[in-house]
Prior knowledge:
The protein has about 150 residues and is mainly α. The protein is about 65% helix and about 10% strand.
Amino acid sequence: MKIHPTKSYGKRADRIMGAWIQLFRSYNKIRAKESAYIQSFSLTMNQFQVLEVLYHRGELSVGAITKLTMGTHGNTTVVVKNLKRDGLISSVLHENDKRSSILCITQKGKDIIENLFPNHAKNFEDYFDVLSDDEVDTLFSLLRKLNKAQ
């Protein structure tokens, strides 16, 4: 069997693409595990993200939630509609702009997040257990630096 050499795009480009692949693989593995955990609470990942943002940040507009969850306005609107239907969030008209609504998490939504979140946090501790505290700090700093540069 003939082995084809790997195409190189330069030493630095090759290393960067390799780092990206490792980051992407790690993200996908963790995301799949967390999606399964979150689905055990009858929530989609997008529903969880909206509930989590409202729980930790307080009342927000759809636009603010969309930005914080890095979603699209259309998708966030559908997620919000379904969460309202299920009684997990509620909305009130914005006092300064009657075309806009402010969303807040209901007690039913809080109960789910308060039940779900401690193990969610523990899961992340477990995923990152292979890294020392210094390595976690370095990873955070490097990823934050990369994020701010984009």
